[in-house]
């Protein structure tokens, strides 16, 4: 592409709310064969809400109070959902975040574990009577958040995040261009698969640990060719840098934006199609 055509193209993209931070991203984007999206905050709003609580041997309000108290200092969106729904929070005496799993805390003398099934498996806590509720929540596309108290399973909270209004149309538009669409997420496999089915997404990489998103991009590239990755979070930064084209959601974290080649100002997943349209138009003009 000539410098002039790149300048015209990036200018046109900027009018559509698509910022090309690097000029050669315009060319690399045209060669992408697959677009992989992070789930939370990218395809979904990233502001989950508590829907239901199932407990065993504990009152639901008490379970929520303990969990929300433990989560007060956490940055994870799940923590906000629990906090918003609870009342009479107390200060936890000890909190340890466990990346990709959840956290461990002591609240009112009770040793709590809060997080996903992988956390409970790792700590040797059986889901017992709450296993069915856990699976049901996940199959409905909601995130099951488990709590164990003093080594015994006590509650499962169903937390759900709204899909962004333009997400389904964005997947369809990418399909119409002959691209494969993937989702990479730390969330539970059944949850991710239910949301992927709703959106028409082809490939799902779920239960990916924070440091594993980069490897997920490499694995997709090996199977499909050049990858554009779209993400918003701190833990998306390595994958954004690894991808052939890293695309950050403008409403996301600064770290994600700084690691990306392209920024979608509005935060709408549909911006990916706009970006690809511009890159194709520019390259077609100069070929
Ligand atoms: P994601 O951004 O996709 O949710 P993370 O690696 O942050 O990925 O977390 C993976 C999973 O671990 C989450 O989907 C959630 O089930 C669980 N988890 C992580 N942090 C917390 C937390 N503070 N409280 C409860 N669950 C958590
Ligand atoms: Mg995210």
How are the elements arranged and paired?
Layout: H1 3-15, E1 18-20, H2 25-30, E2 34-38, H3 39-43, E3 49-55, H4 60-71, H5 77-85, E4 94-98, E5 102-107, E6 110-115, H6 117-122, H7 131-139, E7 143-149, E8 152-160, H8 167-176, E9 180-184, H9 189-199, E10 203-205, H10 213-224, E11 227-231, H11 237-242, E12 245-249, H12 254-259, E13 262-264, H13 271-286
Parallel strand pairs: 2-9, 2-11, 9-10, 11-12, 12-13
Antiparallel strand pairs: 1-13, 3-8, 4-5, 5-6, 6-7, 7-8
Helix pairs in contact: 1-13, 4-5, 7-9
Bound molecules: adenosine-5'-diphosphate and magnesium ion.
Family: Belongs to the cation transport ATPase (P-type) (TC 3.A.3) family. Type IB subfamily.
Protein name: P-type Cu(2+) transporter
Subcellular location: Cell membrane; Endomembrane system
Detailed description of the structure:
By secondary structure, the protein is α/β, with parallel strands linked by helices. The chain has two domains: 3-45 and 162-286, Rossmann fold (3-Layer(aba) Sandwich), CATH 3.40.50.1000; 49-160, Calcium-transporting ATPase, cytoplasmic domain N, CATH 3.40.1110. Helices cover 42% and strands 24% of the residues. The chain is built from 13 helices and 13 strands. Helix 11 (237-242) links the parallel strand 11 and strand 12. The protein is elongated. Bound molecules: adenosine-5'-diphosphate (ADP) and magnesium ion. Magnesium ion binds at residues 38, 40-42, 231-233.
């Amino acid at each position: 592409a000539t410098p002039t055509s790149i300048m015209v193209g990036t200018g046109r993209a900027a009018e559509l709310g698509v910022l090309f931070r690097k000029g050669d991203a315009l060319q690399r984007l045209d060669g992408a064969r697959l677009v992989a999206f992070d789930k939370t905050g990218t395809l979904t709003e990233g502001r989950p809400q508590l829907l239901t609580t199932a407990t065993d041997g504990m009152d639901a309000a008490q379970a929520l109070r303990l969990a929300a108290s433990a989560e007060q200092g956490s940055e994870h969106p799940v923590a906000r959902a629990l906090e918003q729904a609870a009342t009479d929070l107390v200060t936890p005496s000890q909190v340890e975040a466990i990346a990709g799993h959840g956290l461990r805390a002591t609240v009112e003398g009770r040793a709590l574990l809060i997080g996903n099934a992988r956390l409970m498996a790792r700590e040797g806590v059986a889901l017992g009577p709450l296993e069915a509720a856990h699976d049901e929540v996940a199959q409905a596309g909601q995130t099951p958040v488990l709590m164990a108290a003093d080594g015994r399973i006590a509650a499962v909270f169903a937390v759900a995040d709204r899909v962004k209004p333009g997400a389904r149309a964005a997947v369809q538009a990418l399909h119409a261009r002959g691209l494969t669409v993937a989702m990479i997420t730390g969330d539970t496999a059944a949850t991710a698969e239910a949301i992927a089915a709703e959106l028409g997404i082809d490939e799902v990489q779920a239960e990916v640990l924070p440091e594993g998103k980069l490897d997920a991009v490499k694995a997709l590239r090996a199977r499909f060719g050049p990858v554009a990755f779209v993400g918003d979070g701190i833990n998306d930064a390595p994958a954004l840098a690894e991808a052939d084209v890293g695309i950050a959601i403008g409403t996301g974290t600064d770290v994600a934006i700084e690691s990306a080649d392209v920024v979608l100002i509005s935060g709408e997943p549909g911006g990916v199609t706009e970006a690809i349209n511009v890159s194709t138009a520019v390259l077609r003009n100069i070929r």
